[in-house]
Amino acid sequence: MSPTRSGTLFGIAAYAAWGSFPLFFPLLEPAGALEVLAHRVVWSLLVVGGLLALGIASARGLRRDQVLRLAAAAVLLAVNWGTYIYGVNSGQVVETSLGYFINPLVSVALGVVVLGERLRPLQQLAIGIAFVAVLVLTAEAGHPPVIALVLAFSFGTYGLLKKQAGVGAVASLAVETAVLTPAALAYLLFLGLSGDGTFTTEGVGHALLLVSAGIVTAGPLLAFGAAATRIPLSTLGVLQYIAPSLQLICGLAVAHEAFGVPQAIGFSLVWVALVLFTSDLVRSHRAVLVPA
Length: 292
Description:
Layout: H1 3-19, H2 21-24, H3 33-53, H4 64-89, H5 93-113, H6 121-141, H7 146-165, H8 169-194, H9 204-228, H10 233-239, H11 242-253, H12 261-289
Helix pairs in contact: 1-9, 1-11, 3-4, 3-8, 3-9, 4-7, 4-8, 5-6, 5-7, 5-10, 5-11, 6-12, 8-9
């Protein structure tokens, strides 16, 4: 399988998993957003640490610039995770989905401006339609979508740093979680000493759910890391529409949030953009396999 095809499949898997997160995080209540974030970091490190111990990957031999980029990416990842958990558990799933609708535009812009990637005409049309969709959804909200903007720019820049670092999925996630773990452990210790933690007070089932956050977190991130090093950032950016589309469905079907004509128009435009971009990718792949 070619790197482009495998990278695309990894990207689809990552975003489909992230799209289903609104179904998972409410199960972790009454744990607050920061407590859930800390558990995600700690248990994710154990997951990737196990993979490294099994020899599946290695984090040795990384250059200083790679480590610095991954450390910066770790900070952005923490901001993204914390904001997302807060948005979902505070009943703002539709706005979190808006953030990930905007996110691909940020990724595409970074890919073109920073990495010099170029878009074909049909891809440009797809991005233009997606931009209109974002404008419709933003206008409907009636106020600055702070949660959405933080999610979009934090994860868009995270993807850029991962692309520039060029480190394998397991090794890069190991560095990122290692950077965040001291602060996460300190916070969990603080919660335990103050009596505000929920890990030992809400039953075995709750504790196991918090532990499972490591696998739920690491799996999609490993898939994303594998995708980011195999396909152009612009392609990765458009694939991201899978996640907010699923999140929006969760917000409507599970949280029963409002969905009027503007949301319907925006959602439809996003899928039109996806169809155009996907058809262009398929056509370009066929052109490579069967040259004129």
